[in-house]
């Protein structure tokens, strides 16, 4: 009797590109474990991420706009799902491994702080160990999830999570697809949110970018995926054409100057104050950390563990912890 997993192996061998990472060729896990008869290792990784606590918390973490007045703004979770969809589309049209691309995409932002990139910059400034959300995402799946046991993900998924941003390229084309999908997703849907919030008008977008990508989100994403396919099909890389890459960079710089810097200023002072005081409090009183983090103090420095705790917080939870510690309650002396 042929197991479902073997059927998947056979389909991958028949239909995936020679440059795809086939499930059977995975470099495996750091800790050996009994394999699943139904799912490949990449499929299991995807499921482990989806059912992790850190994934569930993404729904209450800021993408760009903190506590927006409306139900249709991006959160860190909706951004993650957006990246996953675009990465899978890229993997499908390039005959890459969709399961691997999806697992990397779903896990790429698990280590993000509350209050978006403002929170990341604050922790990086405060902590001697430094803080980068991609490195923290890897630490989440390796060490923090499942009460300190970690998720024991495959090498390829871990590599894609770590290298979805930065100067070092992922070791798989699926990881490269996620890195591109991340940029395409956040630029385009941040434009939607910025227009909705009144930060800019559609007719203010750079003329060259509109000409090369289109006037709305759907057109821009479709153009980006088509361009990547035409540039990368049957090639040992996943990239955009030079012309459209430059236009996307121009659009990204426009968003930084017109939207991100303004949006960040709105929450910068509050985020710096809250995370700064929380960081100081828990480094001075590590015994007040939850048990998971107190246990980590046996092997890791205090600043690293405090960053683990603070970055795990949702926006709302961070605010509540701050209020409970520092805001006098009615009737208190």
List keywords for this structure.
flat; 15 helices; Hypothetical protein af1432; mainly alpha; about 0% strand; about 325 residues
Describe this structure as you would to a colleague:
With 333 residues, this protein is mainly alpha-helical. The chain has a domain of 211 residues: Orthogonal Bundle (Hypothetical protein af1432), CATH 1.10.3210.10. The chain is 63% helix and 0% strand. It is built from 15 helices and no strands. The chain starts with a helix and ends in a 7-residue tail after the last helix.
What's the CATH topology label of the domain at 42-114 and 129-266?
Hypothetical protein af1432
Helix content: 55-70%
Radius of gyration: 21 Å
SSE string, helices as H and strands as E: HHHHHHHHHHHHHHH
- In total, the number of strands is 0
CATH class assignment of the domain at 42-114 and 129-266: Mainly Alpha
Question: What shape does the CA trace take?
Answer: flat
Which structural category fits the helices and strands? mainly alpha
**Arithmetic mean of pLDDT:** 92
Strand content of the residues, in percent?
A: under 5%
- Note the total helix count: 15
Low-confidence stretches: 68-72
Sheet having the most strands: none
Terminal residue distance: 73 Å
The CATH fourth-level homologous superfamily of the domain at 42-114 and 129-266: Hypothetical protein af1432
CATH architecture of the domain at 42-114 and 129-266: Orthogonal Bundle
